[in-house]
Amino acid sequence: MERRFQNIALQVPPERFENWDHFRRAAPEYSIGLEVMDDTPGHHGHYVHFDHHEGVIREATMSAAMQAYIAVRQGRLMEKWLRKRRPVPVYVWNADQDVCLAAFVLEYHELLERAEVKPLLRWIVQYNNKIDVCGGLYPVNLEELVKGHFTWVFEPYWQQRLRGKTQGDEALVKSTIREVCDRLLDLIDGKAGIAPITVQPDILYASPYNFTIADEKGHPNCRLVLAARGCTNLISLICRRPNGRYTYSVIRGSPYDDDLFPVPKLIEAFQSAEDDPAARIWGGSNLAAGCDSELGSSLHWTRLREIADGVVAEAYAAAEISPEAR
What we know:
Layout: E1 8-11, H1 20-26, E2 31-34, E3 42-44, E4 47-50, H2 64-73, H3 77-81, E5 88-92, H4 97-107, H5 109-113, H6 119-133, H7 142-147, H8 150-153, H9 157-163, H10 170-188, E6 202-206, E7 212-215, H11 221-228, E8 234-240, E9 246-251, H12 263-273, E10 282-284, E11 288-291, H13 301-318
Helix pairs in contact: 2-4, 2-6, 4-10, 12-13
């Protein structure tokens, strides 16, 4: 099978699209966005945005790759649009696992349009959906992920995650997506490798209020390890950036916890504490949020600890629950 993109043309814009109007002004008709817009997912005319971050109920919204999977398999999106534009422009901001998998689904749509979808490919799409919707804290069997080649398929993403998003990294984003697609093709051809999970996160702080601050060292497998250990509420230091700033994620393990880890309030408090509160550094959904992947945060994790303990303590007090009762 051809190992270059023929059906999609990857585009890495210099900035994220602010909203649908911005996307439709800047991109040609029959364009697809993958987690590249600060607006809701969906489709407007001949424009589609696959995302599960902005303006959504996280636990009720499919991952970008699963949205693309349904659009291709059930809606024949690529089959129809390729009659109008070839290749289809696909806009991306970074090369995380969900984006890489969605790009594969769009490029190799014919594999999914057939009745006999490869079981391992279907399994990876489904497992990615569960993990990504839960911000990486879906309870997992690590051995199953390794044996199913999941960790090996997405291994190339580690390098970009370690660096964070930077201006001028278009070549890295595109090459990472291409490498993951090549590994998915190897998977389908029965040539997949194995990538054991050896990395271990550093637990920086275990709060009495049932959340953890962990250093993931830039490695996505760290969050799988934390999930397997039963970690629920997480403030994750993803990486320390060369410019001295930091990349963080904030994950709430369940919407059924009496709102004792209120992500929106945490994000608001973190935003207010930044060196430039006017810049939109923090954002996200009800279960998963974080700082902007390009701007990064000025806050050391110890400052996040102080702020989070205060916010979560207020939530416990409002619920009239002591930390010991949880």
